[in-house]
Design brief:
This protein has 432 residues and is α+β, with helices and mostly antiparallel strands. It folds into two domains: 2-171, no CATH class; 182-192 and 288-326 and 348-431. The chain is built from 16 helices and eight strands. It has helices spanning 2-17, 21-41, 45-52, 61-96, 102-106, 109-131, 143-170, 173-193, 224-231, 263-271, 286-299, 307-324, 349-364, 368-383, 391-410, 414-431; strands at 209-212, 217-222, 238-240, 247-248, 253-257, 273-276, 331-334, 340-344. Strands 1-5-3-8-7 form a five-stranded mixed beta sheet, covered by helices on one side. It has a three-stranded antiparallel beta sheet with strand order 4-2-6. Helix 6 runs antiparallel to helix 7, helix 11 runs antiparallel to helix 12 and helix 14 packs antiparallel against helix 15 (391-410). The longest helix has 36 residues, at 61-96.
């Protein structure tokens, strides 16, 4: 049951991130409200208002038609412009920063709501215009509905102004990196908060029964509670062999169990896995490291040549690495007695650091400013090892030495070489 619930919630989450989700819901609201007003008008609400507050009702048929026709044409123009701006934003972000940032930009809820407001108002105006009878008089004319159309159009104009402001902010790389960082920060804080502090005695699973994947795609998430519920009555443990964000091919090993159990329990374990063709930072914080690294590398390319953006990206990476050092490489799901039942494979600190530095060393080793900034990142990491595992210190120092080796071969200025040599000596002294 938990696996099914997890899948339903995951499906809703994916649907919610779709650019058409909120516009469709809000548009449906505008469509239904138009029919509600059509029903209300048949209760002679406009007649009542004409008798008591006539200034709230549009009495002239031609005036009402002209207003609604103008609104419809104007809203279509605004929608075309807004959608064009969204496409320009996505194209520029993909070209100048990284294609990986597109899912986050597409799922921007504010822009989806604004587009939904446009479409709902458009549908309302269309169906209100249709409801006007050719021979209508001041009692038959849905005058109050027309007045509401004027109110809604005013609200749309305000939403359009806000949209222009928001889109101008979203296009700035500093805001894009800030959103990436904050999302990853919240995810890492959650993982660190709920992580078990004690050492686990999880057994060696090398000779356990291996179950293979029935599908292919990115392993987006797995419901550990659902896996636990599936095996708790069988007294077995589960070792998940893939990590979040890894692309799993059909037929590749997916997880191991201690011994063979009932087929329905195995099916429940399989249903706890969610595969996707796209990735989100909310599900996998490692994606934030990839995105910030790609932004820094793209900024250092000859076509863009923006070291300032690369420095900002390294600052965010530094803080994320400091947070990652508080998390252990191995993750477990414990039962009520504190016994590890499920082992979840995760991207190790060593692999994560190597993948980030592998790209930065390759494309930034010639720039002394970036090299010094990266050495500063390692200095911060070595100074904060009191909250991290001891092995992380050696990994950070090793990557600093790799950076020094690449930079010394790409930089010819003696003063620059002396500077980074001195900086490496300070790192070694801190690591002792």
């Amino acid at each position: 049951m938990k696996a099914i619930l997890h899948r339903v919630l995951n499906y809703i989450y994916k649907l919610e991130s779709n650019i058409a989700f909120y516009p469709s819901l809000i548009s449906l609201g505008g469509f239904l409200f138009a029919f509600l007003m059509y029903y209300v008008e048949h209760l002679h609400v406009s007649k009542y208002l004409v008798e008591h507050v006539p200034w709230l009702v549009i009495n002239n048929v031609e005036t009402a038609r002209t207003i609604l026709t103008t609104f419809i044409a104007g809203l279509i123009s605004i929608m075309v412009f807004s959608f064009s701006m969204v496409m320009i934003l996505l194209n520029q972000a993909s070209s100048n920063f990284s294609p990986r940032v597109l899912p986050g930009l597409i799922s921007n809820r504010r822009h989806q709501v604004i587009l939904g407001i446009y479409n709902s108002c458009l549908l309302y105006c269309i169906f209100t215009l249709i409801s006007i009878e050719p021979t209508g008089d001041k009692y038959q004319l849905p005058g109050f509905s027309v007045l509401l159309a004027i109110v809604f159009m005013t609200f749309c104009l305000g939403a359009f102004i806000y949209f222009i402001h928001s889109i101008s902010q979203e296009i700035q790389i500093s805001n894009i990196m800030s959103v990436i960082f904050n999302t990853a920060k919240n995810r890492l804080n959650t993982l660190v908060e709920f992580e078990k502090t004690g050492e686990s005695s999880f057994p060696n699973s090398a000779h356990w029964l291996v179950l293979k994947s029935k599908t292919s795609g990115y392993m987006e998430d797995v419901s550990l509670s659902a896996v636990f519920e599936a095996v708790k009555d069988h007294g077995v443990k589960v070792d998940i062999m893939v990590y979040k964000g890894e692309y799993v091919f059909k037929g590749n090993p997916l997880f191991r169990i201690e011994r063979k159990i009932k087929s329905d329990a195995i099916d429940s374990i399989f249903s706890a896995f969610n595969f996707s063709k796209s990735e989100f930072i909310e599900d996998n914080y490692v994606l934030a490291f990839k995105q910030l690294t790609e932004i820094a590398v793209k900024a250092m390319s000859p076509g863009i040549n923006d070291p300032g953006t690369a420095i900002n990206a390294i600052d965010y990476l530094t803080e994320l690495f400091l947070m990652r050092m508080r998390k252990k490489d191995k993750s477990y799901y414990f039962n009520a007695s504190g016994v590890a039942i499920v082992h979840l494979k995760s991207t190790s600190f060593k692999v994560l650091l190597y993948e980030v530095m592998g790209a930065l060393r390759t494309y930034c080793k010639h720039d002394i400013v970036i090299v010094q900034k990266l050495l500063g990142m390692f200095e911060h990491m070595l100074q904060h090892t009191d909250t991290a595992e001891e092995s992380y210190k050696n990994m950070a120092l090793r990557e600093a030495e790799n950076l020094y080796e690449d930079a010394s071969s790409a930089i010819s200025n003696k003063a620059d070489l002396e500077g980074i040599t001195k900086r490496l000596g300070i790192l070694k002294h801190i690591a002792v």
